[in-house]
């Protein structure tokens, strides 16, 4: 089975998920005064690598915010699993849950089934991230098939800082298509 992929420069689909406070959040719509958004897809509460990465991401939140980038992280966990996971996280950006199988497929994510009931009780996405620009287009993306692949946050935020400088005229990369 092959997955569909979002292509660089394509419009990011508006996907509704549930925030930790129970409110609806639309992925692809930056919050507050931000005009860009970084969407982190994580495996869920069961993944200690995800927990570590999300806590590390918090330490970069201000640098992303200074570049006009809103952060949000989402999983396929239930509201209860998200609430339990929040106990091991110290974040000041929204966490959301309820990513459906159809939504995971729309985003072109790799999907795994739990190895046992001890891991989790549902199929879940492998890690991915999408940086959306002010036009809602995919500026940068990475889709992984295992929990061991994560972006280097210093390099990522540094790259966004470079891209956002108007004098650099840096285009969306990876848009060349061959027939």
TrEMBL record:
> What superkingdom does the record give?
Bacteria
Residues in Thioredoxin domain copies? 6-165
- The name under which this protein is listed is Redoxin domain-containing protein
- From the UniProt record, which GO molecular function terms apply? antioxidant activity; oxidoreductase activity
Pfam families assigned to the protein according to its UniProt record, in alphabetical order: AhpC-TSA
Q: Per its UniProt record, what InterPro entries does this chain match? A: AhpC/TSA, Thioredoxin-like_sf, Thioredoxin_domain
């Amino acid at each position: 089975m092959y997955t569909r992929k979002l292509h660089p420069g394509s419009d990011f689909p508006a996907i509704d998920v549930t925030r930790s406070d129970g409110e609806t959040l639309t992925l692809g719509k930056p919050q507050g005064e931000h005009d860009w958004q970084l969407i982190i897809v994580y495996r869920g509460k069961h993944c200690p690598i995800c927990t570590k990465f999300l806590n590390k991401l918090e330490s970069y939140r201000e640098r992303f915010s200074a570049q006009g980038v809103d952060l949000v992280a989402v999983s396929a966990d239930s509201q209860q699993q998200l609430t339990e996971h929040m106990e091991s996280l110290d974040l000041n950006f929204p966490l959301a849950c309820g990513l459906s199988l159809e939504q995971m497929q729309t985003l072109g994510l790799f999907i795994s089934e739990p190895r046992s009931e001890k891991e989790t009780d549902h199929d879940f996405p492998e890690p991915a991230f999408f940086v959306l620009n002010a036009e809602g287009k995919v500026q940068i993306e990475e889709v992984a098939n295992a929990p061991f692949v994560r972006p280097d946050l210093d390099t990522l935020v540094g790259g966004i800082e470079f891209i956002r400088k108007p004098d650099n005229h840096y285009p969306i990369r990876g848009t060349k298509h061959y027939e």
